[in-house]
Amino acid sequence: IPKLSTFKRMIPLILRSSVIGTWIGALPGVGGSIAAFIAYDSAKKTVKNPTRPFGEGAYEGVIAPEVANNAGIGGALIPLLTLGIPGDAVTAVMIGAFMVHGLRPGPLLMTQSADLFWLIIALSVVANVIFLFIGLATTHYAPKLLSVKNEYLMPIVAILCVVGSYAINNSVFDVIVMMLTGVVGYFMKKTGFPIGPTIIGIVLGPMADSGMRRATMISNGDVLGTFAGRPIAIIITVFAILQILDQFPRIKNAKKQLIANIFQSKRS
């Protein structure tokens, strides 16, 4: 169990990762894994004095993705209960369970079955409280899993990777793609190329392409004109551009210098 001082220090990171997890979890089809990658990358960029270097057991590197992953589960319920759209695989199963019992998730669920809607919300809160006690009870034993030697752990992981990739489409080609991807990931790690954004791009790429085609058909080919007339699209585009520009070293240094000048002026 962490000390109270350590917990207080992590509160801003916990809140920020919770917002990231909820926001990403609410996007249909994205899931908690993407939220975990984004939260970890955000923590790596924003935490100035981590408990130890990232990648070497920093508390922040564990807290951020786990908090975002858990928050993504609750976020996935937002499109499920409000629009009837599954946020991830779990909520897709829940939609099937609702339909079996004659219920249709969506806007009408809150009016026709308000008691069930609030019951789901209440059970989500209770489940998180129970998970807290389960986590505290297993804290002493869970770290012992880290003592398993890589000689025993890696073959198990390799077997699960092969079985999982084959089971998706029952195709050996998927297994070959998995192995080649592993080789590419190995060289990316050796050369210092970030793997997290690449994984996010691979997962979100087909969704972005499908959304772009749909937007093109809806706007009759005038995508830019349609986007320019919608404030939400403009805000998202601006944030995306700022995020891309923030990766350039000159802009990073200029931002750090600006922040330092602001703090210095406040102190003076």
Features:
268 residues; mainly alpha; 12 helices; globular
Task: Provide structural commentary.
The protein is 77% helix and 0% strand. The protein is built from twelve helices and no strands. The chain is globular, with a radius of gyration of 22 Å. With 268 residues, it is mainly α.
Strand proportion: under 5%
Radius of gyration, in Å, reads 22 Å
Coarse structural class: mainly alpha
Distance between the termini: 40 Å
Topology:
Blueprint: H1 4-25, H2 32-46, H3 59-83, H4 89-100, H5 107-112, H6 114-138, H7 150-169, H8 172-190, H9 196-218, H10 223-228, H11 231-245, H12 249-267
Helix pairs in contact: 1-2, 1-3, 2-3, 2-9, 7-8
What's a concise summary of this model?
The protein is mainly α and 268 residues long. It has helices at 4-25, 32-46, 59-83, 89-100, 107-112, 114-138, 150-169, 172-190, 196-218, 223-228, 231-245, 249-267.
